[in-house]
């Protein structure tokens, strides 16, 4: 398993990590993903560790804390062998202080996560969303206190806009508080919006991308094909409304290219889609998920081999879309291209 530095930090993470949204799954979203109990979770963790995957990602909002609890049970007795990433800020109740990133909320959320996970520190704590109602100074000074207390080792964010992340980095630098080193983002062959602004920002500022939903919210599993209905039992039938939309023509164009490359390489469609992401700038780790051992082993097969330059170009061409303003106007002009070389 390849390990990469997480942004500008000294922490090294595996190029594949495991997302535990299926652990203890309940409710209309997470229940549709899966309902892995502690015994099954321990087996999946075993397989990950055997393959060199030691980073496990969760969040307090996943099944109202059940994912953290099941993960804690699955890693019991081997905390020193794993890295834990969890997230907070999304609503965990109906109370006025049950959401956001205020000082009281962050401290309470961290203590609750530590209890559910059965540990005394979190390797990477990420804000699950930007809290526009709390001053950035309050957020970052609280995270600084949690790091100094030894309860959190690194901090990051998820789903931030470029200005939100850049403002936070500037405030952290001004006060000497911990800088965000990770940005958990949606990125896939059918969702390349990350490249327009967040990727250049990440490369400039030393932010490592942790990629969620690398298979385009279940669309790039190899089961969806042009001219065929969504297969019975697909989680898309119940959860498509929760995830990022994808135009049909883009989806089928990408699926056609994936199937061609899969046939050329002898790999599965998901393996090709995940492997492509590992070649992209700023990507530190791609978060894979699995409801069972077979899915996990297939996803683990996405690394340890390389796509050819021609295959990468084929996938890039099939998935490329025109960026919106202000990212597109000058890309066709030679002078602008010299100032802003494309990322490959």
UniProtKB/TrEMBL annotation:
GO molecular function: oxidoreductase activity
Gene Ontology cellular component terms for the protein in this record: cytosol
Residue ranges of domain NADP-dependent oxidoreductase in the record: 16-319
Cited PROSITE patterns: ALDOKETO_REDUCTASE_2
InterPro entries: AKR, AKR_Detox_Biosynth, Aldo/ket_reductase_CS, NAD(P)_OxRdtase_dom_sf, NADP_OxRdtase_dom
Pfam families documented for this protein: Aldo_ket_red
Entry keyword set: Oxidoreductase
Protein name: Aryl-alcohol dehydrogenase-like predicted oxidoreductase
Species of the source: Chelatococcus composti
